[in-house]
């Protein structure tokens, strides 16, 4: 008792396993199966460790300017952080400061409710419909803010930009955060709307399409006003979260657009092929626009498939949660990895 009574108790988010054994096929945390751009390797080789003596640029201007150029916005419309988890957590802290509940879907990225609990933010989770689609009207009710992952995780479904715009326009008194961790795999970014609506914040990451989960870079694009508020909170918390190598190597990734597009294209092609093969094996799935497929088999329970795959050294993600406990979330790996997955599934299914 005593001091423990004052402890802020939360149930933390547990990410997917990170097994270290060699030979594993890792399709459980939506990483990119291909390496980052060769330009990142070049920048890394040229990086002067002598520079580590100094604090990094708190504004991370090199990276912020590269992102601003790439997306055609001003530098003061860009905010960077240590992975989009960091950017999202800071955004919750900054924008959700009301007695009214923040809204996000019942089936979604599991960190949202953890942050809400941690920061004492009231929240409500409208149910997705039977096809795991968002019900727009649910987000046109009174609220203290909105978070919509688009595409959603773990379903992979993308909601149209028109739907997103209606929600943003319909909520002029709340901040609407669109979490676009997976948007590069075929979705359309809401970034084109940030100059029109100052209550919109678009968050993206280098962890998926840019193959840099290990370095932890995420960013937000929004109105100057929104980004300004976000910076005030971040600089009250820790001004030096972005480290010097991240700033340099992230910039390298942005400067190699050809490689980026090629990598994303390969993943989309593999995903579309695997969808067809999975359908032929008796799986159903929402039509993913992400780098994963959320699949359920007509006869074999997901929990069983998950265990069998794991024993075979193929790691996928299983969520033991209501409505989705018969689904596996399978990251799109290389063609060779997916062939091994499919060959093994064929063996157990037939
Ligand atoms: N949002 C969603 C929807 C995600 O699935 C993830 C990855 N787990 C993140 C944000 C966070 O990604 P990161 O912190 O690696 O940028």
UniProtKB/TrEMBL annotation:
<dbReference type="InterPro" id="IPR015421">
    <property type="entry name" value="PyrdxlP-dep_Trfase_major"/>
</dbReference>
<keyword id="KW-0808">Transferase</keyword>
<feature type="domain" description="Aminotransferase class I/classII large">
    <location>
        <begin position="23"/>
        <end position="343"/>
    </location>
</feature>
<comment type="pathway">
    <text>Amino-acid biosynthesis; L-histidine biosynthesis; L-histidine from 5-phospho-alpha-D-ribose 1-diphosphate: step 7/9.</text>
</comment>
<feature type="modified residue" description="N6-(pyridoxal phosphate)lysine">
    <location>
        <position position="208"/>
    </location>
</feature>
<dbReference type="InterPro" id="IPR001917">
    <property type="entry name" value="Aminotrans_II_pyridoxalP_BS"/>
</dbReference>
<dbReference type="InterPro" id="IPR004839">
    <property type="entry name" value="Aminotransferase_I/II_large"/>
</dbReference>
<keyword id="KW-0028">Amino-acid biosynthesis</keyword>
<dbReference type="Pfam" id="PF00155">
    <property type="entry name" value="Aminotran_1_2"/>
</dbReference>
<protein>
    <recommendedName>
        <fullName>Histidinol-phosphate aminotransferase</fullName>
        <ecNumber>2.6.1.9</ecNumber>
    </recommendedName>
</protein>
<keyword id="KW-0368">Histidine biosynthesis</keyword>
<dbReference type="InterPro" id="IPR050106">
    <property type="entry name" value="HistidinolP_aminotransfase"/>
</dbReference>
<dbReference type="GO" id="GO:0030170">
    <property type="term" value="F:pyridoxal phosphate binding"/>
</dbReference>
<dbReference type="GO" id="GO:0004400">
    <property type="term" value="F:histidinol-phosphate transaminase activity"/>
</dbReference>
<dbReference type="GO" id="GO:0000105">
    <property type="term" value="P:L-histidine biosynthetic process"/>
</dbReference>
<dbReference type="InterPro" id="IPR005861">
    <property type="entry name" value="HisP_aminotrans"/>
</dbReference>
<keyword id="KW-0663">Pyridoxal phosphate</keyword>
<dbReference type="InterPro" id="IPR015424">
    <property type="entry name" value="PyrdxlP-dep_Trfase"/>
</dbReference>
<dbReference type="InterPro" id="IPR015422">
    <property type="entry name" value="PyrdxlP-dep_Trfase_small"/>
</dbReference>
<comment type="subunit">
    <text>Homodimer.</text>
</comment>
<keyword id="KW-0032">Aminotransferase</keyword>
<comment type="similarity">
    <text>Belongs to the class-II pyridoxal-phosphate-dependent aminotransferase family. Histidinol-phosphate aminotransferase subfamily.</text>
</comment>
């Amino acid at each position: 008792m005593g001091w423990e009574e004052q402890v802020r108790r939360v149930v933390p988010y547990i990410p997917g396993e990170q097994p270290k054994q060699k030979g594993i096929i890792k399709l459980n945390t939506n990483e990119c199966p291909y390496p980052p751009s060769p330009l990142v390797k070049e920048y890394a080789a040229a990086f002067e460790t002598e520079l580590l003596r100094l604090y990094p640029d708190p504004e991370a201007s090199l990276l912020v300017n590269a992102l601003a150029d790439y997306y055609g916005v001003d530098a003061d419309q860009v905010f960077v952080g240590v992975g989009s988890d960091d950017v999202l957590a800071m955004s919750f802290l900054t924008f959700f400061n009301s007695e009214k509940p923040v809204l996000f879907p019942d089936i979604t990225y599991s960190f949202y409710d953890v942050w809400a609990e941690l920061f004492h933010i009231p929240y409500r989770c409208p149910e997705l419909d039977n096809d795991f689609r968002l019900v727009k009207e649910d987000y046109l009710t009174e609220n203290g803010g909105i978070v919509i992952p688009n595409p959603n995780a773990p379903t992979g479904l993308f909601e149209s930009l028109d739907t997103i715009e209606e929600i943003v326009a319909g909520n002029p008194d709340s901040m609407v955060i669109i979490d676009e961790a997976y948007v590069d795999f075929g979705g359309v970014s809401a970034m084109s709307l940030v100059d029109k609506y100052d209550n919109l914040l678009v968050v993206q990451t280098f962890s998926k399409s840019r193959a840099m989960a290990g370095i932890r870079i995420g960013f937000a694009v929004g109105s100057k006003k929104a980004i300004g508020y976000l910076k005030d909170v971040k600089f009250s918390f820790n001004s030096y979260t972005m480290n010097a190598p991240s700033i340099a190597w992230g910039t390298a990734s942005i400067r190699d657009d050809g490689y980026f597009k090629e990598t994303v294209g390969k993943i989309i092609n593999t995903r579309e092929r695997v969808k067809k093969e999975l359908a032929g094996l008796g799986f159903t799935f929402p039509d993913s626009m992400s780098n994963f497929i959320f699949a359920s088999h007509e006869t074999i329970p997901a929990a069983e498939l998950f265990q069998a795959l794991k024993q075979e050294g193929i790691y996928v993600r299983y969520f033991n949660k209501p409505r989705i406990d018969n689904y596996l979330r399978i990251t799109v790996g290389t063609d060779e990895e997916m062939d091994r997955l499919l060959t093994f599934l064929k063996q157990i299914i037939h």
